[in-house]
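Re: the 201-residue chain
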Amino acid sequence: MSVPVLAVLAAALATGPAVAGGVSPPDAAAFRAAITVAADDLEPDTLLSTRTAHARQVRLDGGTWGDGYLVARIDRRSGAARYEVHQRVRYIGQRRDYAAVHYRLADGTLAIRPIAGDRRGEDVCSTGEFNGACPLTSELVFPIEEGVLAAIVDGGAQGWDVKFKEADGDAGVRATVPMAEIRGLMLAVADYRAGRLSPRG
């Protein structure tokens, strides 16, 4: 997607759908203001992230907790952005082998993509010597194209559902990415491209 087209889209993303009742969650402007920007002159990309934009560790299912965030990697020479969804999961039991992610495209088509990374760590009993239930963690990562993400967020829903599946296909864990979070990150990307965003966070 070209920079001018994204700038037009960013203006439309500034306001999201209203939330009926209760306390409103962070809107796109709040996420935009909380984006962290990491720039290193020895790296080709500048990283924009929603990781610290809000605390949203939530129960994903009966025995799994998760904390997700988004990353945009912007090429410092071309301005092209690559988006990633990061989902940290914590659970108790045997090690899970997550292999794929399922989600809906803007037209409702089910997309099934391989997970690009599974970073494991912070395990209390990772040596295998503990015979009880182990608390285990994985940080799952998958990329998504800028144009695809822009079309999804333009659909008007309040959240985007994704499901991480294990290699055997029998089990999975669902998570919801707030559309306001996606909008906020895309607005921050437009800010960076326009020279309005400096390293912070």
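The radius of gyration is 18 Å.
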